[in-house]
Specification:
This protein is mainly beta and about 110 residues long. The protein has strands spanning about 10-15, 20-30, 35-40, 45-50, 55-60, 65-70, 70-75, 80-85, 90-95, 100-109. The chain has a six-stranded antiparallel beta sheet, with no helix packed on it.
Length: about 110
């Protein structure tokens, strides 16, 4: 299956998971997965949340920012891949002066 994110309507979700500003996303879903192409403008974030029934993989494609993974803050940049296993907690923060673009896959387990 090929997913054409350009044909999926973009949503702008304010304060996603308690984060700052808006999370701009094009999202494909089926009963077991969410596959997303996301964008965070400078100062925007995805709030801290726990994956109780799923895991998440995030691949940064452009820009840089920070991730808080189980309480530890680390920088992220284009080319980095983040993994949040089931039962763990994380957030994604664009604390830079440029846009942060990424793909994310949330797989139910």
């Amino acid at each position: 299956m090929i997913i054409d994110f350009n044909s999926i309507q973009q949503q702008s979700i304010a304060n996603f998971k308690g984060g700052e500003k808006a999370y701009d996303v094009r999202m494909f879903t089926d009963p077991a997965n969410k596959i997303m192409k996301g964008h965070l403008e400078p100062g925007a974030s995805i709030g801290m949340h726990t994956h109780d029934t799923s895991s998440e993989i995030i691949f940064i494609i452009q820009g840089h920012g920070s991730v808080i993974d189980d309480g530890e803050k680390n920088p992220v940049k284009a080319g980095d891949c983040l993994y949040c296993p089931k039962g763990h907690t994380h957030s994604l923060i664009n604390d830079s002066q440029e846009g942060l673009d990424f793909y994310a896959v949330v797989a139910e387990q």
